[in-house]
Specification:
alpha/beta; single chain; seven-stranded mixed β-sheet
């Protein structure tokens, strides 16, 4: 299997006060929420540093210099498309499949527990499945991977609700797609999530 055929895309935001971790900011304040976001992204990037063919897909479009510190050897950066989350995810998948990519995985920056093993497991699953999902404890997903564009998985999705994972599974089954799932992980969105993550062993 060609490693170059595998791609990882990380969706993230410029670390700006008032623009990241808004739910966390309700308790900690905007500046502390920004600092927490930076810590989460730094942890995630460190976890994945050994991987190549990684793209940091950022927003807003003019934030390239703010994203620069998170780049690792062999990584690239590219602005997200416009539109809602579904439109941006679909655009990112489509862009990579227009190249020589065969297995594309996208994650967000809310789950610092993701490891290289998780990503490699996702790429491996896509050798025999059309879709791979990493379910999140809040009812969403922390990872989605495809081996071809699947726009029907992203249109009119109830984003930021506890029904995203189940609705994605339903649509995939109706489309006759083979779906693999990974381990369940927790996002860090609220003050309680943040304290649990900070109190983790090690």
């Amino acid at each position: 299997m060609s490693r170059e055929a595998n791609r990882l895309v990380v969706f993230l935001k410029a670390p700006r006060v008032g623009k990241v971790k808004t739910r966390l900011a309700e308790t900690l304040g905007a500046e502390a929420a920004r600092a927490a976001y930076v810590k989460l992204v730094e942890t995630l990037c460190a976890n994945l540093a050994s991987l190549r063919a990684v793209e940091l897909c950022f927003t807003p479009a003019e934030a390239a210099t703010e994203i620069q510190p998170w780049l690792r050897e062999g990584w690239s950066r590219f602005p997200q498309s416009t539109g809602d989350l579904g439109q941006r995810l679909d655009a990112a998948f489509t862009a990579h499949f227009r190249t020589d990519a065969e297995r594309v995985v996208i994650i967000g920056s809310d789950c610092p527990a993701v490891t290289t093993t998780d990503i490699e497991d996702a790429w491996l699953a896509l050798e025999a499945h059309d879709v791979v999902l990493g379910p999140a404890l809040d009812g969403g997903y922390w990872l989605i991977g495809l081996r071809a564009p699947q726009p029907e998985l992203f249109r009119m999705m109830p984003w930021s609700t506890d029904g995203v994972f189940s609705e994605t599974m339903r649509r995939a089954r109706e489309a006759g797609l083979r779906v693999a799932t990974l381990r369940e992980l927790a996002d860090v969105d609220t003050a309680a999530d943040w304290e649990r993550w900070r109190a983790r062993p090690g």
